[in-house]
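Hi all, long-time lurker, first post. I run a small reading group and we've been trying to get comfortable going from sequence to structure in the token notation. Rather than ask abstract questions, I figured I'd post a concrete chain and ask someone more experienced to write out its structure so we can walk through it together at our next meeting. Sequence below, copied exactly:
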Amino acid sequence: MMVRKARCEACGAAKVTPCESLYIYCDFCGTLMDLDVGRLRTEGVTPGPEYAALQERLAPALEAARARRDRPALMALHRQLQALFLRDCAAGYPPRIKDPAYRAQLIEYLAYGDVVRELDPRIAATALALSAAHAGLEFDEQGGRYVIRAKTLWPILEAQRRAAQVYRACLLDTPDPVLDPDGAPDGVGLAIAIAMVIRGFMTMVDDATAVEMLRRTGLAAGYEQVPDVELHAVFCTGCGARRTLPTGARRALCDACGRLTEVGTAAHCGQCNAAIVFGLHQPVVRCGHCHAEARLAPRLT
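-- Answer (accepted) --
Happy to help. Here is the structure in token form:
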């Protein structure tokens, strides 16, 4: 079967099952590991008119809070905007958005990001560079539609890449940072931030430029043929939905309810007492601390 060519930065495992979502989670530890860039040109989301109305209604309060540099007030206002945006554009977010606890954490994280973006002077400097790059954008007519002239797009991508790096650094450089609820490794978070920018350009470029855009941003990992793996049926402890997971899975995402649940068996190493986890249908593991072999005791019936 063909799967997205990706490797989890958290546990090192390769993707071994197809993904039905734009967001790719590790089959073994449940960590967000990549985006299925093949879907970037086909899966678009747009907020409804209620969101635009809320933006207009909150604009005076936002401007006043920015002028006062009032972080709590800005957070409260951006929470409202993000909550409505997520409601309208849920299809563009990770499947975990179905989990109310995750959704609340994501709204808090995105609102926090908006506040940092508006108040940190380092981000303001990158915004000026982005504006200058966008000013040079040119279009050509192809087949009855206008597409971006490729050579004018590359300065924008470079400015966006730099802006994303600065933004992510600024997110952690505050007295009370709000952490990414996915807990994705920083390299994955940066790649996803850049991919979200690319997503906005995908419908505005021709096929050759789209391919080159993915190559330049390091997102063109492609797909690979992997052998079929043994899958085991398990049931989500949150909603009861049935799902199939590979041998060795320790934590998994439920596509039905969005919850991440533990499917492995927690234990302690008999040699050094370090915490270990036996994956699904995996009776033997090696301790990550002392490297001793550990065997799961059979259940008594």
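A couple of things your group might point at:
Residues 150-172 form the longest helix (23 residues).
The chain has a mean pLDDT of 89.
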